[in-house]
UniProtKB/TrEMBL annotation:
SUPFAM superfamilies: NAD(P)-binding Rossmann-fold domains
Superkingdom per UniProt: Bacteria
Family matches, as PANTHER family: CARBOXYNORSPERMIDINE SYNTHASE (PTHR43796)
Cited InterPro entries: NAD(P)-bd_dom_sf, Sacchrp_dh-like_C, Sacchrp_dh_NADP-bd
Domain Saccharopine dehydrogenase-like C-terminal: 140-387
Residue ranges annotated for the Saccharopine dehydrogenase NADP binding domain, each copy included: 5-136
Organism: Paenibacillus kribbensis
Protein name per the record: Saccharopine dehydrogenase
Length: 399
């Protein structure tokens, strides 16, 4: 049915490749491209020989002309960007030049500023409309599935949604004293930034990790959750009409936070260049180089994740509550695709977003976040492709 160019070769990309190969009727051919072509070749060697034909290519995704050349050579129907968010705009530029649909899992952020917002990508809307192609932003889990969950709740259960609390909990244990479950540079930039949430039309800023609660999550139990800013808050505040409050919460162990505080106190999380032995280095990038590769955590990680949305609002004039979530098992993910659950929960929705575009179900010219489309096909696909969801109509609420 179609062809996909997958840019990236890390843990999430590996899941995307596995899932595309599990759906050869949709993904007849894929090309895996990365700066490190050896990683692409390793994936091809592992998964080649099936019905989905696999090519590989060396690619510097910071170079728009190189991306354009590869797109013109391979002629995909859709580009799945699971590289770094710093590269979103160069890849979108290449898709515009070549008339190819675009999917990513995280919004653009400039390398020199830890700033998470959609303004740069939303600015492409008219150009994608004129080109007649779709850009689907944030088709991971959060952002991604959390937006679809909210759209599903809005469509089926609420006349008005007033409050959304997104809770992302990882109860997995990889056995290392300190490691991050996805790209360390992106992860640490996100956590050490100031928190922010939306309330009554305004954005309220908090000091990093200063807002803490305990929440009892299905299948993993009570966990400390901390308020962060996350990019889907921005799009949901625009696209869910009438919403009054949106917050994002994530779990961290005391051990993780103690290590992070020490690293931050000695300057290792800084993105400001320093001179070392005559060379300019960025401490956070050096730290990334010495920490365990998230893609290597799969065989070590045990436990489960729980990510979902606790929603409050009104139906037929009466207050209504709703909690929709997914529980994912690290060991089961590794047995299926060789990756831990963090990569799995991002990679599966990226494949689903691309699949819905190729099938023409989620395809309209312009730049869109996932909650702007009909959620039902995506929700059905989650159950089918490894991320089944559960519902609770009497959840414990967050004050």
């Amino acid at each position: 049915m179609g062809k996909a160019l997958i840019i990236g070769a890390g843990g999430v990309a590996s899941v995307v490749v596995h899932k595309c190969c599990q759906n050869p009727d949709v993904f007849e051919e894929i090309c895996i491209a990365s700066r490190t072509v050896e990683k692409c070749d390793a994936l091809k060697e592992k998964l080649g020989g099936g019905r989905t034909r696999i090519q590989t290519a060396q690619l510097d995704a910071d170079n728009t002309d190189m991306v354009i050349d590869l797109i013109r050579s391979f002629q995909p129907d859709v580009v799945i960007n699971v590289a770094l968010p710093y590269q979103d705009l160069t890849i979108m530029d290449a898709c515009l030049e070549t008339g190819v649909h675009y999917v990513d899992t995280a919004n653009y952020e400039p390398p020199d500023t830890p700033k998470f917002e959609y303004s740069w990508q939303w600015a492409y809307k008219e150009r994608f409309e004129k080109a007649g192609i779709t850009a689907l932003l944030g088709s991971g889990f959060d952002p991604g599935v959390t937006g679809v969950f909210t759209a599903y709740a809005q469509k089926h259960y609420f006349d008005e949604i007033h409050t959304i609390d997104i809770v992302d909990a990882n109860a997995g244990d990889h056995g290392y004293p300190f490691a991050t479950n996805f790209n360390p540079e992106i992860n640490i930039r996100e956590i050490t930034a100031k928190g922010r949430y939306f309330e009554n039309g305004e954005w309220i800023e908090t000091e990093p990790l200063s807002e803490k609660k305990v929440y009892d999550l299905p299948e993993i139990g009570p966990k400390n959750i901390y308020l962060l800013y996350h990019e889907e808050l921005e799009s949901l505040a625009v696209n869910i009409k009438g919403v009054k409050k949106i917050r994002f919460w994530m779990t961290f162990s005391d051990n993780y936070l103690n290590h992070l505080n020490v690293l931050q106190n000695v300057g290792m999380t800084s993105i400001e260049p320093i001179e070392y032995e005559g060379q300019q280095i960025i401490p956070l990038q050096f730290l990334k180089a010495i920490l365990p590769d998230p893609a290597s955590l799969g065989p070590r990680t045990k436990g489960k994740t729980n990510i979902g949305c606790i929603i409050q609002g009104v139906k037929d004039g009466k207050p209504k509550t709703y909690y929709v979530y997914n529980v994912c098992d690290h060991e089961e993910c590794y047995a299926e695709v060789g990756s831990q659950a963090i990569s799995y929960t991002t990679g599966v929705p990226a494949m689903i977003g691309a699949m819905l575009i190729i099938k023409g179900i989620w395809k309209k010219p312009g730049v869109y976040n996932v909650e702007e489309f009909d959620p039902d096909p995506f929700m059905e696909a989650l159950n089918k492709h490894g991320l089944p969801w559960q519902e609770n109509f009497t959840p414990t609420l967050l004050d």
